[in-house]
Amino acid sequence: CSRPQKVCLCPFLPVHPLKVSTCLYIIQHPAEEGRVKKTVPLLAACLPPDKCRILVGRRFNEDRYPELATVCRNPNTLILYPGAEATDLEEVAMMSSSPSVMIIIDGTWSQAKDIFYKNSLFRLPRQPPLKPSVSSQYVIRTQPTPPCLSTLECAAVALSIMAPPKSIQETILHPLQALCSFQLQHGAQIHHSKEHLLKNGLYDKPMPKNKRKLRRMELLVNNVKI
């Protein structure tokens, strides 16, 4: 896990990489690369190297990333980004007859949106939505709303649907749970979602002056999907 011995997470990782047919491409915003509490390394440690590819950057074009362009044009490729005409992931899993590729954008929600809309390649694959039944367990970072998941959690839920058995989700979440536990024991605080803080008058940061960001906060408070 490349962490100090005192907070080593290796005992919480699977002894052997999980056998999955689905290949993940993690598109990571450069700002995520240096974060101490990032989840992608834990995800990569759970999977075979050829099933978890990590590409760091903001802009991805066909000339610089020909392999990624080929992947995005493959009809079996999925990208986990909400879309108006998205097909439910469980329906995709039932219809798929061959191993698929899933693309996940790793960054804050605004960073992920920027990467998605400024790279036309990522609008080629199908966009199946995730419908998690529980809130994020990544309690040491603030999420916009309770159903929002970390990159590792998205991968765990998606792989449990696309590559049974369902126990794969529990196995991948195990090191994340340990990470949060260690951080809380060493002074970290539980982070409620931004939606929760706003609705309960607990949001202690200055309200944004940008009208678009302020409008997004108003939508969160009023339970409007954004």
TrEMBL record:
Keywords: S-adenosyl-L-methionine, Transferase, tRNA processing. It holds the Pfam family DTW. InterPro entries: DTW, DTWD2/TAPT. Residues 1-188 form the DTW domain. It catalyses: a uridine in tRNA + S-adenosyl-L-methionine = a 3-[(3S)-3-amino-3-carboxypropyl]uridine in tRNA + S-methyl-5'-thioadenosine + H(+). Its EC number is 2.5.1.25. One of its GO terms (molecular function) is tRNA-uridine aminocarboxypropyltransferase activity. It comes from the Eukaryota. GO terms for biological process: tRNA processing. Signal peptide: none annotated. Belongs to the TDD superfamily. DTWD2 family. This is tRNA-uridine aminocarboxypropyltransferase. It comes from Chloropsis hardwickii. The gene is Dtwd2.
